[in-house]
Amino acid sequence: MFAPSRLCAFALSLNMRCDTVIIGAGISGLVAAHRLKRFGRRVMVLERSPRPGGVIESIEVDGFLLERGPNSLRGTHDFLELIDELGIREELVTADPRAPAYIFSRGELHAVPMGPLAALSTRLLSPAAKLRLLREPFLPPRQEAGEESIAAFVRRRFGSETLDHLVSPFISGVYAGNVEQLSAQASLLRLVEFEAQAGSITRGAVRAAHARRRDRASIPQRSLRPFRLSSFRGGLKTLPLALARDLGESLYLAAPARRITLRQQSREAADHEISIEIDGSVRTITAPTLIVATEAYAAADLLKETAPALAALIGDIPYNSLVSVPFGYRREQLKRKLDGFGFLATRDSGLRILGSIWNSSLFPARSPAGFVCLTNLIGGATDDKAVTLSDQELARIVHHDLQQVLGITGEPRHLPITRYAKAIPQYVLGHVDRVARIETAASKFDGFWLLGNYMRNVSLGECIRQANATAGEVEGALVREHT
Q1: Whole domain around residue 118: which residue ranges?
Q2: 207 within some domain
Q3: How far is residue 16 from each of residues 38, 222, 254, 287, measured CA to CA in Å?
Q4: What is the CATH number of the domain that holds 411?
Q5: How far, in Å, are 294, 422, 459 from residue 53 at the CA level?
Q6: What's the pTM value of the predicted model, to 2 decimals?
Q7: Each residue of 1-29: pLDDT tens digit?
């Protein structure tokens, strides 16, 4: 459906010029292209893969609807506006916003505390750890400059037990990362700002809550709470496919960019040049503006000739590996009812898996009648050897761990395993400074933008927001160029 037509291929052979070329048809590149088209711009999106969406991929196997990448997204105003523009609001499905998430610790599941009172009543933390939480508003703020690891930040404000039994599993769920290596300023910026602005995370959170209430009173907005966990009837792939349909012949699949030459600020009226391969032939296209919306390592490879210093900075951003091992079970095989989002495991729990997402308890039609579907994650920064294990060994480890948590009897229905050697960018210490240097280096090229989750915030909702913002900057540059 989205392969280039003969007419488009002929236009390419004539060295076609457009307003903006976007390399990469993941969610960031697709949303940026959609927004620019609504501005009335001629865009061309180049994607090396035969399908759009990047890591977003939904597949159906034996009646099970599986996500090979992200399993859901947190609804934002940008996201809701986007699906309304695309006409796919009726495809949206949402989980119960009250659906609990669990942490497996000390041999049992504990609901994640969602507020101060819940934090003081949970069995997840000891009385000593709860007293430590109560001390947080009275601790002095950090005076040192520079970045601090998540582990150091949380220990300093809340203590080691809260780090190990609450924050570290959460970081495993978002980044599959190592709290000793990840930067708090890059990964937990909101909490860091609370401390810096109010002297305490607790006081900062209270002030922010009051500010949100004032804002809602003055500028009414629809509540996002019902969209806390969102997907689509046909899986998350519904969104990139709708964006691809909207782009039509502006999207080129199986069309890898082979080489780019960036426009220098000192060369007025020069365009960026992009060499691409389509059907075995290499063609060159030009554009006054260019967005590279690929993974960091792919962007570094594209830029290594035309901007080697910038490429080196981007190439320094590490990724971890991750494996998704989905299983189907008959409902009667589980002693425990699946009544929430799923669970994350503390690293001292005795489990090797990072956690399990209970897909069929969140969204409809995720499994055949009488079955449940669980997506189980293993690997990450603290277990980088998991990606090298065989399917049989992965299945054995995951099933064994699930038996310890859910009291499963019998064997699972085996479903396709997905391995990512480079899964999630890691905002390790120094990331804030690295991003600043990347942006400074990129600004030396006129009409050029980098876009992707390796800069700030890995969530899909934030990727959509950043893509909209970048499209706005590109539109501004194009307007200035023609005035």
Answers
A1: 57-131+159-182+223-236+320-423
A2: no
A3: 21, 43, 18, 9
A4: 3.90.660.20
A5: 11, 16, 14
A6: 0.94
A7: 444 443 344 444 445 679 999 999 999 99
